[in-house]
Amino acid sequence: MDYFTPNFKSYVVPNSEKSGRTPVLRNKKFIEDSLITEFSQVKTIYDIFWRGKPYNPETSSFLSYKFYTYKESAEIVTNFASGLIHLTLKLSKTEAEKNSVLQRQWPVALYSINRPEWNLTDRACSTQSLISVALYDTLGHDSMTYILNHCKAPVIVCTVDKISRILLNIQKLPNVKIIISIDSLSEPSGPRSGPPNLNIRAIDILKQWAEHYNVTLVDFDQVKEYGKQHKIDHHPPKPSDIYTMLYTSGTTGNPKGVMSTHENYAHAARYSSLGKLDKNNTPVILSYLPLAHCYGRNVENYNTLLFGSIGYYSGDISRILEDSRDLQPTSFPGIPRLLNRFYDVLRAQTIDAPGLTGVLYRAAIKEKLEILEKTGNPRHEFWDATLFERTRGFISKRLTVAGSGSASIEPQVLNFLRVVFCIDLVEGFGMTETSAIGSKQEPGDGTSGNIGVPLAGVEICLRDIPEMSYFTSDLPCPRGELLIRSKSVFSGYYNEPEKTAEAFLEDRWFASGDVARINLDGTISIIDRKKSIFKLAQGEYVAPERLENTLQKFPLVSQSFIYGKNTMSYPVGIIVPDEAVFMPWAAKLVKQNKSFKDMTKDPIIVAAFLEEIAKYCKESKMNGFEIIKKLYLEYIPFDATTNKLLTPTMKLKRFDASKYYSNTLDNLYS
């Protein structure tokens, strides 16, 4: 492959190619990290927040039903941080415990939906060099207990509805000494996130319950008041201090605690913000991406770096459009699951609309898509001012840019939304281990099916994966495992030195486990996943995630779990059909009215479904040994709360799924 063509979008570091690896790629606009001076004074998350106070003291920084300026936010952060240290010192029983508190770098767990208090607590932790440990709001009892014990957090800051869940497991949580309720424990009813049946009697029982187990239960305002009365000087962190621990999804076992330093996330925020600072136009974002996920965390950090405002959603993802239209954000960090929903709604209102409306939209979108492909421009002077005036404001009338991250998005969805929103909608890639950054499409890039080029401050290359037949010498495009090097890359997995050693190669290259391709134009595409492969009896390797991603595009399939044994020559599958498509199809086969459950158990339907799958897999150019030979149709969807087969970020927990369906899988192979 020729890396030095004029239209190659990445910068290729000269003489960086090694045996079994591609050359190193960087961002073409920002070749040398040392030459980038914008935000160079920002070394920590503490710097990000506190530089905003003197510059824009009256700018609204956090929005929900109440507005906080940077000045007001700074006062809350200082008082809460002081109160946190004061309360923990007060409860320390020995000099050794007091010294441990004063040495800082101990964990504070956050267990809540996105709210201003979540962010304020995170800033307070930075103000005193404490480590924030984020727990997904949707975590079940087992995962919550595992993480709290693994990180040994003595303090939990949570919404009032989480208190009973913690106290139910408190005998399994020997490190927990303090629970701080974000919601008031003095009022008869809490703020919007509190359960509707919250009352004084229920609060009294919670307090007695906590006291019974020698746990101190206070609320956010009480801790602020302690701090106001017992001010403690700021204890700013060093760049090398741990800023946060985020726990990976744990798709193959217990989640790993990713330790990220202040330098890691400050670097990510800096390089996500380059060229975007405009003090005359305050950026506004809607915070709905879970703050226990790196994507949501980095979005808030770099928005704060740009002196922006943050509005918090209502807590109900089904109301996300109402929340967004109320706030009118200037940018929108999207995820494919949500963007697919927007696509379905807008498609029905435009190109699938009946009559003249549909005719006009089909003509306009066809023309705009042709222009997008040729020029990368999603805008059109005539159509945007007339036909697309309404769709432009679907999310927000002030929207100028949007992104898609956390998973791949279908090209037709991405391009459709670009032209109906009339904005740059860019796809990007990042990981928990890289503080959410890695690569991103540049504004004005109208291509799809790729994750763009390396972000400024990031280096990327590929290495051979012989066991999967991916080689950097492949033609026309090199393929291999994606390696990333950057100051944003984490310091290690907490208390897991062996897994940390496995993740890093020489010179601090992080092995992502993702299989990528460097395209002819210098962009990068994720094409597979390395870590979940299994070997069949004949010695062939199978990557189940790639097969599942292929099946996801088949209309009859909603969810799938592909499984294989090294003693068998073929894979099998557990498949959840898409009920809306499956039921009419199945009814034609059996000519009977049956329930969804009964249809999935009918042997005629199962056999026909398997034939359809095999046909589709062949059309999708799958190898013969990759095609499932037997399947089980499941009528109960995989989820994160009931059968717990999905992580909070909707990834399949492969290890748990194999245990859950153990008997079924054995039967399929019998």
Automatic annotation (TrEMBL):
<dbReference type="InterPro" id="IPR020845">
    <property type="entry name" value="AMP-binding_CS"/>
</dbReference>
<dbReference type="GO" id="GO:0005783">
    <property type="term" value="C:endoplasmic reticulum"/>
</dbReference>
<dbReference type="GO" id="GO:0004467">
    <property type="term" value="F:long-chain fatty acid-CoA ligase activity"/>
</dbReference>
<dbReference type="GO" id="GO:0005524">
    <property type="term" value="F:ATP binding"/>
</dbReference>
<dbReference type="GO" id="GO:0016020">
    <property type="term" value="C:membrane"/>
</dbReference>
<dbReference type="InterPro" id="IPR042099">
    <property type="entry name" value="ANL_N_sf"/>
</dbReference>
<dbReference type="Pfam" id="PF00501">
    <property type="entry name" value="AMP-binding"/>
</dbReference>
<protein>
    <recommendedName>
        <fullName>AMP-dependent synthetase/ligase domain-containing protein</fullName>
    </recommendedName>
</protein>
<dbReference type="InterPro" id="IPR000873">
    <property type="entry name" value="AMP-dep_synth/lig_dom"/>
</dbReference>
<keyword id="KW-0547">Nucleotide-binding</keyword>
<feature type="domain" description="AMP-dependent synthetase/ligase">
    <location>
        <begin position="64"/>
        <end position="494"/>
    </location>
</feature>
<keyword id="KW-0067">ATP-binding</keyword>
